[in-house]
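debug: dumping io for the single-chain case to check the tokenizer round-trip. Nothing else runs in this session.
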Amino acid sequence: MIRYYRNRKHNNNSHMSISSNFWDVVKKIRWLVTAVFVTYVVSLSIFPGYLSENVKSDYFKDWYPIILITTFNVGDFLGKCLTAIYVPNGSKGTVWCCMARVLFYPLFMGCIHGPKWMHSEVPVVVLTLMLGVSNGYLTSVLMILAPKSVPIEEAEVVGIAMETGLVIGLVVGSAFGWLWNLEH
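debug: decoded output
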């Protein structure tokens, strides 16, 4: 099957020009690229900066940041594993879920400045687990759905575009992570 598509790609007279068609392909998947960008901006701006610097625990003491980082990583792994069970057919709901992850900001802010009951370990651990699971699941789903949303000849370019959105999201999210430290 792979040989068929490679031969088809090389035998077509309409070779894809990287410079001219890259942006055409990105326009087709712009919402998926934006979604993976937002996913990583939200994740990296909260994890690990907020989780290692801005939370305190009288019970876990110095182990608390380590427990939260482990919780995020286990959640991320479980989220990636969930794609073996269910991957949605369309990308619209996935994109909306990625955009909805910005709600983690006020929730985590509530753990610092909110009501007294949010200052305990349980809400922070639950939110961290949800952040990790949603990060792993949504990233995997986006990376699965993006190449399927274009013709096979453009799938390689889609992979490059998605990884570019992911890397830029990592950089921007890491930069935003410093904002948590400025507040403290």
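debug: round-trip ok. The longest helix spans residues 155-183.
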